[in-house]
Amino acid sequence: MEIKNKNLNTPIAIVSIAIPSLVALLFFLPKPEMHPGFDIRILPLFHAILNSATAVLLLASLYFIKNGQVKAHKTINLIAVGLSAIFLLSYVTYHAMAPETRFGDLNHDGVLDATEKAALGGVRYIYYFLLLTHIVLAGIVVPLVLFTLLRGFQNDIPRHRKIARITWPIWFYVAITGVIVYIMISPYYH
Q1: Which residue spans traverse the membrane (predicted)?
Q2: Helix (H) or strand (E) holding 35
Q3: Residues near 160 by Cβ (< 8 Å), separated by ≥ 6?
Q4: N or C: lower Cβ tally within 10 Å for the chain?
Q5: pLDDT in tens, 56-83
């Protein structure tokens, strides 16, 4: 498909609005009574692995483009986009079915009592800062990645470079903080 002269702004805008809207909706909808045939509690670890792999791929992508290896740069970025798509589908699946996990909820009663809050101390604020910035930037990075990818496929190198300078650090931050948030909350999964 020739996309050199295609204006894909509208489809990218639709996808960029639909994805965060769907994710936000998951937290308000009742959990369905579904049994996927495997223990969904493995999915957060899977998400952390995907985020780790994406971060490594983004570092490789930067290395390849800085060293003039354009084909390797493109390949690595397409794999990173593929892993991000798998992450998104898995993330939506997990949050559609899994109960909410609260950071610091040692007894898994869904309530963070004064003792649990005191045990966390200031770490709680670090966690919530990382989580909040991760969530906000994850929503922002979707259109950035899609427009960066589009400019690359259109061979519009000046515009590709310009947006990639914004996209790369945000995408890398989202991938890294996804792993950190997982590590911080993993003791509280039930």
Answers
A1: 12-30, 42-64, 76-97, 125-150, 170-189
A2: none
A3: 148, 151, 152, 154
A4: N
A5: 999 999 999 999 999 999 999 999 999 9
Rounded distance between C-alpha atoms, residue 184 and residue 179, angstroms = 9
Tens of pLDDT, residue by residue over 7-52, are 888 888 888 888 888 888 877 777 777 777 888 889 999 999 999 9
3-state secondary structure (DSSP) of residue 186? helix
Residues contacting 3, CB < 8 A, separation 6+: 150, 153, 154
**Which tokens in the block code for residue 139?**
């929503």
Burial class (CB in 10 A: 0-12, 13-18, 19+), 103: middle
Cα separation of 146 and 164, whole Å?
10
In sequence order, the 6+-apart residues with CB closer than 8 A to the CB of 60 are 72, 76
Q: Which of these, 92, 97, 88, lies nearest to 50 by C-alpha position?
A: 88
Whole-prediction pTM: 0.88
Contact 152, 74 (CB under 8 A): yes
Q: Kindly list the structural domains of the chain, giving each domain's residue range(s) and its CATH number in brackets, ordered by start.
A: 37-188 (1.20.120.80)
Helix axes 123-153, 9-26, angle to 10 degrees: 150
User: What are the phi and psi torsion angles at 68 (to 5°)?
Assistant: 75, 15
Phi, psi of 2 (to 5 degrees): -85, 120
